[in-house]
Known about the structure:
With 304 residues, the chain is an all-alpha fold. The protein has 14 helices and no strands.
Amino acid sequence: MKIDNLPLLCLRIGTSLCFAGWAWVHLYWQAPYGILVWNAENFAFLQKLGMSWDTIVGTGAGDGLVQVWMSRIGWLYVLFAVIALTVRKGAYLQIAILILGSLMLYILFYAKYLAVERQLPMLVEHGGQILIPLILICALQFGISHRSTIILAIIAVITTFAGHGSYALGLWPTPGNYYAMTTLILRADFETVRTFLHIAGILDFILCIAILHPYTRIPAIAYAAFWGFVTALARPVSGMSLSLNYWGADQYLHEAILRAPHFLIPAFLLIIWYKAVKTHNEGVIPGRGNNEPLSTRAYPVANS
């Protein structure tokens, strides 16, 4: 495969896997929309529309408003996953559907944000998942190296790692699963795990700064791709077991799949920036002739 095709493939696969993972959550488990319904103001609004408690929650046989719509939304996520692999430039209906997918991801993560009493990192850390459909659209419509595509991808990486770093450092209460996963994988005591998480959190924030500088962004984004992959894989590695039904794949594998944007967006940027450096070293600027002077920028990126 040509290197020119790899960045777009990263975005397609990352978007599709993210939607597929959340489709599994909706269809097999339960998406975290409960807080939107159980909120007193929202429930009062639904009552004004003539909906009773039984109508909303059902009789226990999966016939309530929440259960019915959970399944329908799950199939929408399946549609989003398929379209991410097939969307083409100028296919405006598909593009509109992907934009809807990004909006629905935001609503999903807003519900998670409310469920943890409005902890900002909970909303921020999902920036990569919310934005990857929009990055894919920009890459198709304007080009993989267009300024808008690159800036949106950088924002996605920074928000993802800043959110995780805030939790790892303890700026907000560190989720228990952070300690649980790290303990199970490293088989270390609590103090060692806490120190490890603090170091990881510091590195997350260093990464967020380093990718903004042309001389440090390639090693920083390479680390982001590596660490994003490791942290996504940590879910099934720490949770799956031969003693569980299906080895626990139904419980944990989707947790890695839906986090594909955490490492595939950095991989997208790594390929783009590596190609720009290689082109610079060979004395060629994208969009210019070989005999024209090189840019003074260390790692040039074409605008289109």
